[in-house]
Design goal:
With 76 residues, the chain is mainly α. The protein has a domain at 37-61. It has helices spanning 12-34, 40-57.
């Protein structure tokens, strides 16, 4: 615990909106990577990072009513 940090409260709908925006921005980044002029190897490397990001965000899936809206990490 860091005594120098201040607590910050926000309404749950604001928090939820921020999570949705993260998801949407990751999806846009993914689309841009796939349609870019990068080599296939570069695209695969960046896609692996995106997959790991989604994996880190799966904890927030409890906020989404529909499974189609869930973050999906790496499938093993």
């Amino acid at each position: 615990y860091d005594d120098g940090l201040k607590s910050k409260d926000m309404p749950i709908d604001t928090f939820f909106h921020k999570i949705v925006m993260i998801r949407d921005r990751i999806r846009v980044m993914e689309q841009r990577i796939n349609s870019s002029g990068l080599t296939d190897e570069e695209k695969v490397n960046l896609q692996q990072y995106i997959t790991r990001i989604y994996g880190s965000l799966t904890s927030f899936n409890i906020l989404f009513k529909y499974k189609d809206d869930h973050f999906k990490g790496e499938k093993k």
